[in-house]
Amino acid sequence: MKAPIRVAITGAAGQIGYNLLFRIANGDMLGREQPVILQLLDLPQAQPALRGVAMELEDCAFPALQQVITTDDPRIAFRDAEVVLMVGARPRSKGMERKDLIAANGVIFSEQGRILNEVAARHVKVLVVGNPANTNALIAMKNAPDLAPCNFTAMMRLDHNRAITQVALKLFQPIQDIKKMVVWGNHSGTQYPDLSHAEIRGRKVIDVLRQNGWEGWVENEFIPTVQKRGAAVIEARGLSSAASAANSAVAHIHDWMLHSHHNDWVTMSVPSDGSYGIPEGVIYGFPVTCRNGHYQIVQGLEISELGHKHQLDSHRELLEERELVKHLLGN
Ligand code: NAD
Ligand code: LMR
Fold first, then answer.
1. Where does the chain bind substrate (predicted)?
2. What domains are defined for the chain?
3. pTM across the whole model
4. Residue 39: enclosing H or E segment and its boundaries?
């Protein structure tokens, strides 16, 4: 029997939490044979709801679910956690940009980053979902100087999945045949969904589009549709995406911990290391492959002039966000 993994989830009583916990307990994230202990954090006023969710988890009789801890104390939630999903934060509503949440949410990530630094497992892997996710991940990372910076990531998998689906729908082809997609940059309207490397059964997607006279679709429809999908969901549902976000969080940690898809890469926002001319100091969406619990940025992709401009626009926005939270970044 494997030792259990402690998985902490913040904002566990919220809508993403409700779509996430049952997937994790069912083994979708770490495998059916891997016992998990869920350490669920939410605000004091959300504790009754959180206890209700814990009752439902019990009622599922998931074989891999060893224990559920509910708390409003981050020290209890993060203690010895090996995986931390930082979801707890305000979502935007209609008409807001994700960066409008910085003032309300940034402070959560500095406090929780400090506590992670004190009590989490030294090899903890952190995924930030709460928006603005990239900058919140930077805040948490900077407040946790004793933990490896490379273990702080932000979620771009939802954007990645959205991009793949748009291509699959356009070409009337199966999702699983679309490979080598990437969404560069910030999880925001400046993100750059880039299909110039994407392949379908070994052929370049761009060539298939050209063959059909659909080149204009990339800049006119594909990129803006993916960039604005979060807002479109909010407009339609009156609430921000939850099930699709939870699904992406499960996939992000699954691929990071276990492996990424065969013969493919995935998009993760990770601390920049200078690759593709994006200097260190921001958490930025890159194509990565994962092996043995480590990710590696895919190197050597050719980027067009227009593509590089898109990449830099998103980088510039991350620098602006960083400037707004510089008082939260520790030393
Ligand atoms: P929600 O309002 O339904 O739930 C958020 C939960 O967080 C609530 O239960 C709230 O009480 C809790 N919370 C707030 N402050 C907290 C704190 N300091 N500590 C612990 N818990 C706290 O929101 P949601 O729809 O679940 O969305 C959560 C966040 O995820 C939002 O910021 C949203 O914008 C973001 N999001 C990101 C992506 C992405 O792709 N990165 C996708 C969807 C949503
Ligand atoms: C999304 O992309 O759906 C989330 O980040 C929610 C939002 O505010 O767009």
1. 92, 98, 131, 162
2. 5-154 (3.40.50.720), 156-324 (3.90.110.10)
3. 0.97
4. strand 36-41
